[in-house]
Amino acid sequence: MQTSRISRSLLTRVxxxxxxxxxxxxxxxxxxxxxxxxxxxVSELENQQHTFAASLTRALWEFNSQQINALxxxxxxxxxxxxxxxxxxxxxxxxxxxxxxxxxxxxxxxSSVSLSEQRGVFGHYSPLIFEFSGQSTRVGDVAVFSNxxxxxxxxxxxxxxxxxxxxxxxxxLFLLFSVAFNRMLTQPFRELSKQIDGFHIDDLDDSRIHLxxxxxxxxxxxxxxxxxxxxxxxxxxxxxxxxEQKLRHANQQLxxxxxxxxxxxxxxxxxxxxxxxxLESRRQDLEQRQYKLEQExxxxxxxxSTLKRTNQRLKESLETLQRAQSQLIESEKxxxxxxxxxxxxxxxxxxxxxGVTASSFLADRVEQLAIALDDKSLTQRELKQFIKDTRExxxxxxxxxxxxxxxxxxxxQVAVDQTSDALRDIWLCDYIEGVVQSLQPKLKFTQHEIIIxxxxxxxxxxxxxxxxxxxxxxxxxxxxxxxxxxEQGNIHIRAYLQNEHLYFTYQDDGNGxxxxxxxxxxxxxxxxxxxxxxxxxxxxxxxxxxxxxxxGDITANSAPGKGLRYDFHFPVAVLNH
Length: 577
Description:
Elements: H1 2-61, H2 65-76, E1 83-88, E2 93-98, E3 113-118, E4 121-132, E5 135-147, H3 148-197, H4 218-374, H5 380-418, E6 424-427, H6 428-438, H7 440-443, E7 449-453, E8 459-462, H8 464-482, E9 490-498, E10 501-508, H9 515-519, H10 538-549, E11 553-558, E12 564-571, E13 573-576
Parallel strand pairs: 7-9
Antiparallel strand pairs: 1-2, 1-5, 3-4, 4-5, 6-8, 8-13, 9-10, 10-12, 11-12
């Protein structure tokens, strides 16, 4: 029954696809025949129209209504014509017969046109032109129509032929497929099922299947697979018989082993009694050890409480050290600022002293001029000399007072910035030059040169005090450490903007550092001049200012004899660049 259902299902699906394709092809063929017939009818309408055109035109020219109606009835009686409309030159309908378009749907054209199908009606339109004395006059128009029923009537024979052809082919194909499926699928399935039903587990050789008249197809593969299964069953039966023999032998050995085990159990029972006595003595030993462990645990708890108190004291000591470190860092900042104050005070004293000397000299000359004026002994030469001396003295006063003013303003701005954490708008290049100017007291007794590479047009908003402290500490470290034993050194400071970040490269050509010292460069209290007053907090302050205050990053690179280089950057608000 299953084989019959599979064959019938497969046959049904194949024939369904074929019937569907045949139906589609037949429909397309019928549609093509219909359109060809309709095109032929339109051509026939055009020919009939040409036949009656001359007579109809003369009738319209002569206003012969009786002849017009007669011609219209002649047209409508033609089998291929199902309707006619005749209009005069003013577009008024003279004749309207049969199935047609609405008169207002007709075109207003001076040339013949075919009328597309509407509501199952199609036709041909043509203007009527009367030729008289070499002149052409439009006297009206005519439209003849046919319809879908006429086209289908002409198609009946073709339709019967197409449908009959499709039915005959489908019937023959159905019979052919039925015979083929029965011979190639249904019968082999029945033979296969019949031989499989004759399977007997005790007679495997006779249970093999042998299909006749089969090529090397799927049924042959099923036959081979089934016979291989029989072969495997025979092998498993042989293995099973061999296993049964081994199992009987094993059972005999097991009985012998049971006897031996009973004897062994008796011997081990006596040994267990001795072991129980040994276990009892060991239990007493364990109780003693447990007592000792409890004493050790109590001792460890006492030690643990002592360690907790010690850790608390160490934590308090660490907090004290951290506060002391912060105070040392602040003291280092103030000490650096104090060194600047001393240098600036000395530099400011020089122009002020020169100004005081010039002022005293000018006062003496004014007094001499007053005495000569009172004695009426003032000469023109003395007056010219006084004017000359006055100009020199005022020029000397002006230049030295301006110099003192510049020094004080530079120091004031840098000092205020280094003690303030406020944001400030600065012109970057001018600000860096101001920081370097505030360090002139440290630089004027050396031949070292500071080169600044910075675009003049950069204006930005940042923590200017932190930047000043960073550059000051770097320059002072170079003077103190890098240029030791070097008479003329160079410091190159480069600054540039990139992606809303300010980048700095600080490079000196001093002694440089070994790798071991470079690894400890930013550690607090690390210095190579511990016995010469160095605190070891300068570079630690630099890193804290860059990474914590300015939210940036800093790296250092050095090698012996190659100088020291800092690369650092931090975000800024760019106002102009």
